[in-house]
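step 4 of 6: structure.
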Amino acid sequence: MAAPDTIATLGEAALVERIRQRAGGPPQWVHVGIGDDAAVYAPDRNALQVITTDSLVERVHFRADWTAYESVGYKAVAVNLSDLAAMGAEPRGLLLSLALPGAFAAGDFDALIDGVLHAAAESRATLIGGNLSRSPGPVVIDVTATGSVHPRKVLTRAGGRPGDELYVTGALGAAAAGLRLLERAASPAAELENAARECVGRYERPTPRTRCGLIVGRSRGAAAAVDLSDGLAAGVRLLAQASGTGAVVDASRVPVHAGAAKLADALGEDALRLAIAGGEDYELLFAVRPRRRRAFLAAMKRAGGLPVTMIGQLTREPGVWLAGGNDRSPLSEGFNHFA
Amino acid sequence: MAAPDTIATLGEAALVERIRQRAGGPPQWVHVGIGDDAAVYAPDRNALQVITTDSLVERVHFRADWTAYESVGYKAVAVNLSDLAAMGAEPRGLLLSLALPGAFAAGDFDALIDGVLHAAAESRATLIGGNLSRSPGPVVIDVTATGSVHPRKVLTRAGGRPGDELYVTGALGAAAAGLRLLERAASPAAELENAARECVGRYERPTPRTRCGLIVGRSRGAAAAVDLSDGLAAGVRLLAQASGTGAVVDASRVPVHAGAAKLADALGEDALRLAIAGGEDYELLFAVRPRRRRAFLAAMKRAGGLPVTMIGQLTREPGVWLAGGNDRSPLSEGFNHFA
């Protein structure tokens, strides 16, 4: 049997053509798409373009022996769409920049592209260009996402004020619990199989809260937002810092993911700690003025009924705290990427 | 003496702050700049946004023992601005995505950022966001550049027709000659020092033809354009392919860089081959309708008098040829990134 094609045997032009074939024809707002020196697209009337870039690095953000390349491609796009969601933007064009070893298999390449296109389609984003490079080391997947948003409906991190209520979407800790399980390379007990599948799924294929960010942004129900890529503690700190406020989070209100709670128990981990510091949940954190609470909750309902939980508030007093009973302690930081 | 700071000891927030400090305040069209989930900027009225991404990978595109990080940062931006120039776009916002080993020195980090900002300033582009990741392997520098262009003044690769004349800016082969010299790790003879400095400089710090692309695009003097990142042969092939034509290049007309010719002689290389297949010159190749020739040449003059040379034409007959005397041969391809 012949050796399978690799990206070295195919060459760049064939790889770009492979992507173009898989991507199909672009929508009308794309004037120049995949394959020219740059992509060209028409912004909406009266809309701002939002743009973000984020990368997944092999052995730092993913391991190819744990996760199929389809999911890696999906996640590379999802984490960028999550940033757009946190700005209240509607996704438009994506750029994909890949640095790949020469021996990277063509089948893995196609799977990666399929994952990229799958995540894009779910949020109605379109791949409009990118770049292919060789890597002498790890696979590096860099995605740039652009989106449009009306100038007065941008959700930044800086719009919060003392007295704003903090709301978080969904439930937290599942991605971190899934990662812990992968790290231990342990098979879960039979009664934990569902929880394990759910948590690993959340880690490998996070759902960007695109519709939620868009509808909340349009409703002007929230004053500020951030996505929880590095965990709740990091998100609260970033939002408070940018808004020039402090914050208090009530430990008893943090929505811990049910499957994560089960799995944490079995792994001897603290589920609340995973929910607060674990990261990679890609839920959204909103700061909401009390007088806009009804508009915010109505928008959340219109966005499809994703659960949302009030977990604390922004404060005039500086510092970011976790309150439990009569006690409080500093809300523990997210991790340092470079340590 | 204390060990110098590394990116691992500083952490992400301090690194982002370092970039923000060096970058200074953004212009008015930037609504949300460095440090939020995504950047937000206002496109021009009646203008398209152009967006491109390109990366430099250590040991593939540069070697840290040859080139200072200030130049690496400069080049990472320049190669993206060159793509915008080839579309006739005016540079606007840049995103910088870095994957760096934990032991990467803080001094090199600052030098890299300074190079990025230097290249940006020269073309009036603004750093508006990005991403920082850890790399377990090589340094990977990914830049996304956005620019604006009027819808009817976009220069794509696809606008050429049989009979169009092919023009190339500047002189070719210097970057390839500079790279050959670095590869041999040889000190040039005294009388070649100037040529060597010039050629290595072209390889390390290419000048994007921003003003030239912009003014030619606005003049509608050219029907198609491509930048010569992978060499003249690759550029002619890409333009002809996208335009659905063939092409003939006259070998005697190819403008070989004078310093490259000297250096090639000393290194036992063929200067014409370096000029045709060498790559990394980042000059522009234009296809010009004969009846628009005067408008094109007038625009080139307004753009600052960068020399431009007619080197051949697009043909109805398919194939891309190099003609010399009474002979012709296939125009040799650029290199395959992945081989």
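step 5 of 6: annotate
 - Chain A has a mean pLDDT of 90.
 - Residues 69-85 of chain A form the longest helix (17 residues).
step 6 of 6: archive
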